[in-house]
Amino acid sequence: MCIACETQSAAVSTQESGNFLERLLGIMNSANLSMMLSIGHRTGLLNALQKAGPSTSAGLAEQAGLNERYVREWLGAMTTGRVVDCDETGTVFSLPEAHAALLTDVEGSNFAYITQFISVLGTVEDRVVDCFYKGGGVPYAAYPRFHEVMAQDSAVNVVARLHDAILPLAPGIHEKLSTGINVLDVGCGKGRALLKLAERYPNSQFTGYDLCPEPIAAAQEAADQKGLKNIRFEIRDLSHFHLDAPEAEYDFVTAFDAVHDQARPDHLLLGIRRTIKDDGLFLMQDIGASSNVAENRDHPVGAMLYTVSCMHCMTVSLAQGGLGVGTMWGEQLTRQYLATAGFSQVNRHKLEHDILNYYYVAYPDKSE
User: Are 225 and 97 found together in one domain?
Assistant: First the structure.
C-alpha cells in the first residue's frame, strides 16, 4: 500500500473513532438520564413540576414533599439532559409542554415508566454476568419491582386501549363476552386487563394464571376489593401446560406480552390449543420484531429490547431450564410455534398506540 493510501486510511479510521466516541458519550449520558427520569417518575417530581409551572428547587421540593438538595441535583441532570428548561440564573425550572405530554399524567400518555427498566434490570447485573461464564439463568424472584413496572406498561399499552383498539381485533368477541363465555389469560401478572374485562362483562367467567405468587396475590386482592365474583387467579407453572391444560375449557384465551419469557413457549402454546374450544379464539400480544437480527438493525428500540431480553426475559426462562427464546424471538419463530401448536390461521396486526408489539389473532385448527 502506498504512503498516501495508508495516511488516508488512518485519517478515516481516526474520524470513525471520533464519531463513535461522540456516540459513546451520548450513550452514557442517555443511560444516566434514564435513571434520573425513573426517579422523577417514581417520586412524582415530573408531575409536580408540570403542575407547579416555573419553580425553584426549594419550591418544587416543597410541592413534592421531598428533600431540596436531592431535588436540586435532579434538576441539574434534567436541565443538562434537555428535559427541563431553566432561566439564565439557573434557579427557575420548567417542564416544556411537549415533554410533559409524554412524561406526566397531564394527557394520559405517561411513558416515563419505561425508564425504570434500566434501574430494575441493573439490580441483577452481577448475576447475569455470572451466567455469561456459567450458563443458567436468573429467576423471577430476583426482580422485586419487575411486576410493578410491567403492570404500568400493561396499563398504558393494554388496559387503556383494551376496548377501543385491542378487542375489536377479535371478530364478534364483544357480543360473546356480553352473552357469557369462559376466558383465560396466561401470564396475567397483576391481572389488570382481566379485571377490567370482568367488570365490564359480568356474564362471562375469567381465569388468570401466573407463575409468581406476588402478582397473583395482588390481582386476587383487587378482585376482592371490587367484589368481583366472576374472576379467579391461580399460581401456575405453565411449563407442562401441553399435558395438564383442561381440554376444550375456554372460548377465548389471551396472552399479553407473556409468551416469550415462559420456560417453554412451545408447551404453553400447545396447551392453549388443548384448552381452547374448536370455535374459540386466541389473542396474543408479543414483541414486534423479526427472528433475523439483521432485519432488526433499524428497529427503533431494538437495542433496548435485546437488553431487556438478556437481562430478564431470556434469563428467567433459562433459570427454569427452559428454551430461552428471548424477547426478540420474532414473527417468523412465533408463527412457527403457533402453527406447530395447531393454529394454522394467524392474522397479525400492528396498532398505532403500541410501538413495541404485534397482536396475533389465531384460530385453532378444528379437531378431526
Answer: no
